[in-house]
Amino acid sequence: MIVITLTQCPLNLRGDLTRWLFELDTNVYVGKVSSRVRDLLWERIVKNLKSGRAVMAYSTNNEQGFTFRTHGNTWKIEEYEGLQLMLRPNFEQIAADIDPDTLKKGVAALRYKHRYKVKINKDNETTKQLEVLTDDYWVDNYVAFDLETTGLSVKKDCIIEIGAVKICQGHIQAEFSKLINIGQTLPVIIEEMTGIKSKELVTKGEDLSYVLDDFIDFVGDNVLVAHHADFDKNFLEKALKKERMHLQTTYFDTLMIAQAVLPQLVSYKLGNLLKFLNIESKIKHRALSDARNVYLLYEALKKITIVSAKK
């Protein structure tokens, strides 16, 4: 018996696999083939799988009753007293696998994306607008934050919760968590996802202007760090504009930073990144808990980069 799982499987490789194996689910293949065919299939996988990951497990006569091979995976196969085990890498091991030149190019490209944004004016002329940004992405003092909203549309939806943690020298110094009374019933899907109830917004929520005023005071002159920062930034700036308030700050996006530091990954969702980096945390879809997760992710990426730079 043989089992193969893949990510980012190209169509030509999928065709080769389905000739010999049964596709049980998307990119999950099972079947029974000779050792020669098994080895030929693995050669095809290694040759054709450019940026994805693959695991092959098959029956053998060893103590475990099976063995396995991996490709494109950061987990390492280790032999221990005749047994094959998978070693989950720590920060130092992840950093050791990062090519310093690739990291430098990734961060350089990221700095360019953050420094400049293209704006088309009414005359269809393209101008580059310089944004305020420090040369160093790794700051020790900042505010990690997250928003919960009634939906994904900046035009139609609004903020219902702001959560944030203030970081001083890499450690949590203070926390911020406030619900906002939006004066309307929440969509059922939002109640189910966040656990926030419409009644709770009425009894515990505050007026948007008061929450924003407190948040501005909480942020001070710190950098704001968020995951998929454009989403939170757009909602926040819309709310500030509505209340005729202003927050002068710089935004760092842990999603974009993770793409530069860990280009080998397929998914850059917050939960998947935390899992990859062995950071124990629960994704609750609540602003404060996700703000804490953003802080943990940012510090982990910082540590990996520092370790990698010392190589």
| Biggest sheet features | 5 strands, antiparallel
Number of strands: 14
Radius of gyration: 24 Å
Class of secondary structure makeup: alpha+beta
**Strands side by side in the biggest sheet:** 2-3-1-4-5
DSSP helix fraction: 25-40%
Q: Overall 3D geometry?
A: elongated
- How many helices does DSSP assign? 11
Topology:
Elements: E1 2-6, H1 11-20, E2 22-25, E3 28-31, H2 35-48, E4 54-59, E5 66-71, E6 76-80, E7 83-87, H3 91-96, H4 100-115, E8 116-120, E9 126-130, E10 142-149, E11 159-168, E12 171-179, H5 188-194, H6 198-204, H7 208-219, E13 223-226, H8 229-242, E14 251-253, H9 254-261, H10 270-276, H11 287-309
Parallel strand pairs: 10-13, 13-14
Antiparallel strand pairs: 1-3, 1-4, 2-3, 4-5, 6-7, 8-9, 10-11, 11-12
Helix pairs in contact: 1-2, 4-9, 9-11
Defining key terms:
five-stranded antiparallel beta sheet; five-stranded mixed beta sheet; 40% helix
Describe the structure.
The protein is of the alpha+beta class and 311 residues long. Helix content is 40%, strand content 25%. The protein has eleven helices and 14 strands. The strands form four sheets. It has a five-stranded antiparallel β-sheet with strand order 2-3-1-4-5, with helices on one face. A five-stranded mixed β-sheet has the order 12-11-10-13-14, with helices on both faces. The protein has a two-stranded antiparallel ribbon with strand order 6-7. A hairpin with a 2-residue loop joins β11 and β12. α9 runs parallel beside α11. The longest helix is centred in the C-terminal third of the chain and has 23 residues. It is elongated, with a radius of gyration of 24 Å.
